[in-house]
Amino acid sequence: MSGKKKQVGASNVDLRASLEEDVEAFLKKGNKIQEIPSGISGQVSVAKKAPAAEKKAPAAEVKKTT
């Protein structure tokens, strides 16, 4: 963002024009806009995940030699 504050009483047309200028400046700097699929969140979950069931290799058979 350009650091501009939303003007009190600014019309939607003015705000849209300001946003368009900001996006154009962002892209001119070489930055890219990534489209995120619907349903994806940028928030990091703070909930603990259930531990995954560990897969254990089958125990090797031990043959007694006598």
Q: Into which percentage range does the β-strand content fall?
A: under 5%
The SSE string, one letter per element, is H
Q: What's the helical proportion of residues?
A: 25-40%
Number of strands: 0
The description of the largest β-sheet is: none
* Mean pLDDT reading: 79
DSSP summary: helix tally: 1
Q: Kindly, what is the distance between the CA atoms of the first and last residues, rounded to a whole number of angstroms?
A: 79 Å
The rounded Rg comes to 28 Å
Shape: rod-shaped
Structural class: mainly alpha
As residue ranges, the low-confidence spans are none
Tag the structure with descriptive keywords:
66 residues, mainly alpha, 1 helix, rod-shaped
Explain how this protein is built.
The structure is a single chain. The chain is mainly α. It has a domain at 1-31. Helix content is 26%, strand content 0%. The protein contains one helix and no strands. It has one helix at 12-28. The radius of gyration is 28 Å and the shape is rod-shaped. The model has no long low-confidence stretch (mean pLDDT 79).
Short description:
Helix content is 26%, strand content 0%.
SSE layout and pairing:
Layout: H1 12-28
